[in-house]
């Protein structure tokens, strides 16, 4: 096991050309191919001015090659979790260029397949990186809502990799790595790219999106699963996981604590109770746990052996010190904690206004600032609702409209104003974190001390009206589903245009189109399914104006109220076609190919 990253490029280049690095679309990627891509990235970047470059790629193997090539070229990689407009705007202030799949307007660089390199580049992977080499910068949201850049030296990342191998290397062994998470944040980067590359462990290049794909992938051979609570909560019990239970060596989860029922349920399905890892972008890994065995320790966490910790006597906040940090000083976190038996600690929740929705850190302050900046909200409060049993966490927004906002509310109704405010938030947070409940108020409720309490706000959600607090008539039944973006795939050309999108849609029970279709057993009409495909196709792609025809239209299974389905859209600009598929764990529901054009032909 290589316990440092400083010589990873040289060690990779020295491995046998035929040794396996991983799989891409079912095809093996050998070390010769991987090293060629490292050299191609190195050759491209050594000719670029500047030191700091933002990198975004879906493919973990290509990402690893780009990162190693950049480091050997003396470049620092800035790791954005997404390519939202706000993220790109923040990056433009700090980086000298963009790499990979950023929007075309940013002129992202990427060596073409088969790019040749000069003789200097063929032998340029042997340089050892200094321990203080500035390898990486990650972005995270602080409690004030401002994006905070967190630099990482090569020594910090090396310490993390060495700790992971010391703790979990024996159980992982030579198993392949299958992940449902992205490498664009520190957890996925460590578990899906850096640790496997150092250990010579094979990597599956793309994250696995569907449980139907995950079950056979896990059953194919010895493997470890790198997942998040959001994915583990939704493992369908009706799929055949028996093959996975025979081959799976470990399940890792990070991004938030697993509910006990999810941890034990995953163990029952997959044969392995997840190893949960607690940490952050700032701290790196801090502690871990695996429920089971001694019940008294089930909810507590065992600190990493390299981490010192203490708890503030006044505020109860956890502070840590470790080689995963940039220096030897103590770092106080926003998590409250208490000591537990056997040197463990018990986490008691966060103390700031950064919450997690589907394992994504969301700043409520940043959302409120964006709402007020829209000129439609005079005051805004965004809070986390208490989820009902079995439901995901949701946000609620409480708005005191400006004169313009109130005029829009009265003229167009609540749904239209909701949509305008969601659009104002789209550059700040991903779709999964948009508020699901909205209330429009004359003023925020205050107590005797002039404070607006969480309890007072949540009480406004308990009534049975539509939440406009008398500001407008009841909203009409919705005509669009609840939406969550799962994947967005870009063309691998200079324009980097969207070519494929995967969405999760849930038609609410009060959907307009369920009325009368059919009585006590409502189903989603087929014409609505086609309309939604076109609607979201126009949102994501530059589609021609006119509808021409629809081919190969099939409806195989009905779509029921409050039942999530996935909508896959593929755009072929040359053919003027938009292919769509509705599918779920139960199989395919509908499919077709919509033809569009700019004329009447």
What is the gist of this entry?
By secondary structure, this protein is an alpha/beta fold.
Describe this entry's structure for a reader.
This protein is an alpha/beta fold and 601 residues long. Among the domains are: 105 residues, ANL, C-terminal domain (GMP Synthetase, Chain A, domain 3, 2-Layer Sandwich), CATH 3.30.300; 116 residues, Hotdog Thioesterase (Thiol Ester Dehydrase, Chain A, Roll), CATH 3.10.129.10. 27% of the residues lie in helices and 29% in strands. Strands 8-10-11-12-13-14 form a 6-stranded mixed beta sheet, sandwiched between helices. It has a 6-stranded antiparallel beta sheet with strand order 24-25-27-28-29-26, covered by helices on one side. It has a 5-stranded mixed beta sheet with strand order 5-3-4-6-7, with helices on both faces. Helix 13 crosses helix 14. The relative contact order is 0.07. About 3% of the residues have low confidence.
Supply the key terms.
Thiol Ester Dehydrase, Chain A; GMP Synthetase, Chain A, domain 3; 601 residues; 16 helices; globular; alpha/beta
What is the number of helical segments per DSSP (H or I, 4+ residues)?
16
Mean pLDDT: 86
- What's the level 1 CATH class of the domain at 482-597? Alpha Beta
- Indicate the CATH architecture of the domain at 482-597: Roll
The fourth-level CATH homologous superfamily of the domain at 482-597 is Hotdog Thioesterase
Estimate the global geometry from the Cα principal axes.
globular
Strand-pairing-aware structural class: alpha/beta
How much helical structure, as a percent, in the residues?
A: 25-40%
Uncertain runs are: 141-146, 463-475
């Amino acid at each position: 096991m290589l316990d440092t990253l400083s010589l990873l490029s040289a060690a990779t280049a020295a491995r046998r050309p035929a040794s396996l690095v991983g799989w891409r679309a079912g095809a093996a990627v050998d070390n010769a191919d991987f090293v060629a891509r490292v050299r191609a990235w190195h050759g491209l970047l050594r000719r670029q001015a500047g030191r700091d470059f933002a990198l975004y790629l879906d493919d973990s193997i290509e990402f690893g090659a780009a990162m190693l090539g950049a480091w050997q070229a003396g470049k620092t990689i800035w790791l954005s979790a997404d390519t939202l407009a706000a993220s790109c705007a923040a990056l433009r202030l700090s980086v000298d260029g963009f790499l990979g799949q950023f929007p075309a307007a940013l002129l992202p660089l990427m060596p073409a397949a088969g790019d040749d390199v000069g003789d200097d580049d063929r032998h340029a992977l042997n340089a050892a990186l200094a321990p203080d080499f500035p390898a990486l910068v990650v972005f995270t949201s602080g409690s004030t809502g401002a994006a905070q850049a967190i630099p990482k030296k090569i020594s910090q990342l090396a310490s993390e990799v060495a700790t992971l191998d010391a703790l979990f290397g024996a159980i992982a062994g030579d198993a392949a790595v299958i992940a449902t998470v992205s490498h664009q944040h520190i957890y996925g980067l460590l578990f899906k790219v850096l640790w496997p590359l150092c250990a010579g462990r094979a990597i599956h290049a793309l994250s696995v999106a569907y449980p139907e794909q995950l079950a056979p992938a896990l059953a194919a051979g010895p493997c470890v699963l790198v997942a998040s609570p959001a994915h583990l909560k939704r493992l369908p019990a009706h799929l055949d996981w028996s093959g996975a239970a025979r081959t799976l060596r470990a399940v890792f989860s990070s991004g938030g604590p697993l509910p006990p029922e999810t941890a034990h349920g995953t163990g029952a399905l997959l044969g392995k109770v997840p190893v949960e890892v607690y940490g952050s972008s700032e701290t790196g890994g801090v502690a871990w746990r695996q429920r089971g065995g001694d019940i008294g320790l089930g909810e507590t966490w065992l600190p990493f052996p390299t981490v010192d910790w203490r708890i503030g006597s006044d505020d109860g906040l956890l502070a840590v010190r470790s080689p995963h940090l940039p220096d030897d000083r103590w770092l106080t976190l926003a998590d409250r904690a208490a000591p537990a038996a056997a040197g463990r600690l018990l986490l008691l929740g966060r103390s700031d206004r950064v919450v997690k929705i589907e394992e994504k850190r969301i700043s409520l302050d940043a959302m409120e600032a964006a709402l007020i900046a829209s000129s439609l909200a005079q005051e805004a409060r965004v809070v986390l609702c208490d989820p009902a049993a079995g439901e995901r966490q949701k946000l609620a927004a409480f708005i005191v409209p400006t004169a313009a906002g109130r005029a829009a509310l009265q003229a167009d109704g609540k749904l239209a104003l909701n949509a305008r405010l969601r659009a104002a938030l789209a550059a700040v947070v991903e779709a999964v974190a948009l508020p699901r409940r909205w209330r429009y108020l004359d003023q925020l409720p205050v107590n005797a001390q002039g404070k607006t309490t969480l309890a007072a706000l949540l009480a406004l959600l308990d009534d049975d009206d539509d939440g406009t607090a008398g500001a407008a008539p009841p909203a009409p039944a919705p005509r669009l589903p609840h939406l969550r973006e799962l994947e967005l795939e870009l063309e691998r050309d200079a324009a980097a245009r969207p070519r494929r999108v995967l969405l999760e849609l849930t038609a609410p029970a009060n959907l307009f189109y369920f009325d009368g279709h059919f009585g006590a057993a409502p189903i989603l009409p087929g014409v609505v399914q086609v309309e939604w495909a076109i609607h979201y196709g126009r949102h994501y792609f530059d589609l021609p104006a006119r509808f021409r025809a629809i081919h190969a239209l099939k409806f195989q299974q009905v779509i029921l109220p409050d039942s999530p389905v996935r909508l896959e859209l593929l755009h072929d600009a040359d053919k003027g076609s938009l292919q769509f598929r509705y599918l779920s764990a139960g199989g395919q529901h509908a499919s077709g190919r919509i033809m569009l054009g700019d004329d009447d032909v």
